[in-house]
Amino acid sequence: SHVAEAGGDAADGVVSVGCLPRLVHHLEHAPPSVQVPALRALANLLTGSDGATGAVLEAGFLRVVGKFLCSERSRTRKEACWALSNIAAGTAAQIDQLMATPLLPEVIGLMGRDEFEVKKECLWTVANICHAYSSHPGPHTAYRVGALVQAGLLEPLVRMLDANDPKVIELAVDACGHLLGAGEELARGKGSNPFVTQFDTVGGVDKLEELQTHPNETVYNKTVKILDDFFVAEEAEDENLMPHQSGGGFLFGAAAAETPATPFVF
């Protein structure tokens, strides 16, 4: 795990020697004294190149990491969420692999109930997926955000706006803005933004208005922009329509991997 922590060429070297299947095997079958450093090593590799991340995924990491989200040790839960946050910052294909698992609803659950250090890594995971929409706006990246919303993201995300750490608040504000932007994409030509009323219902607008008095200038500026962009005309007629995939709602699990070529239906 110390070599993997070095990142860069060292991480690529770990991948090249072919040890990843053995590390994943340890996650499944070894005692906790071996599982924990194996998890740490794989999580460190996920901070490396796209190639290193892809190799970890090909070795079956997503298949076995879920049980560590339920660990009795908060540090282990934190490292598992950190690993997922790095996958969520990866390529489009890597994000889609993550979306095709049932892991993200559990991450969202932890963000609502766990210790702050775990919540912070959960926030990074969902914020990276929301940021992917901002970087590459379009129906598919917006669909990912919609899946997070359907899995219950809004309420725990809004709670993170109460954090004492300005950097965490800034991350949560960014995620809120990207999320609402994805709602605009999903509603394009179909009606009103489906996330605006839901965001308001869970107290998001009230929290943003409170943050207008925050001493951090970056937090203030980003908050004002979101309010101006999405809530200036909030008294207008709200159809409160939730976009849905034909045959069901937003998906996690194997079916989610099939959605990129499927048109969106409202």
Record field, number of beta strands: 0
- The percent of residues in helical segments reads 55-70%
Mean pLDDT: 87
Distance between the termini: 47 Å
Outline the low-pLDDT stretches: 235-248, 260-266
* SS element count, helices: 16
The main β sheet shows up as: none
Gross morphology: globular
Radius of gyration: 19 Å
Which series of helices and strands comes N to C?
HHHHHHHHHHHHHHHH
Based on helices, strands and strand pairing, what is the structural class?
Answer: mainly alpha
Q: What fraction strand? A: under 5%
Give your account of this protein's structure:
With 266 residues, this protein is mostly helical. Helices cover 65% and strands 0% of the residues. It has 16 helices and no strands. The chain has helices at residues 2-5, 8-16, 20-29, 32-45, 50-58, 61-64, 74-88, 92-99, 103-113, 116-135, 139-150, 154-159, 166-187, 196-201, 204-211, 217-230. α3 packs antiparallel against α4 and α9 (103-113) crosses α10 (116-135). It is globular and about 55 Å long. Residues 235-248 and 260-266 have low confidence and may be disordered.
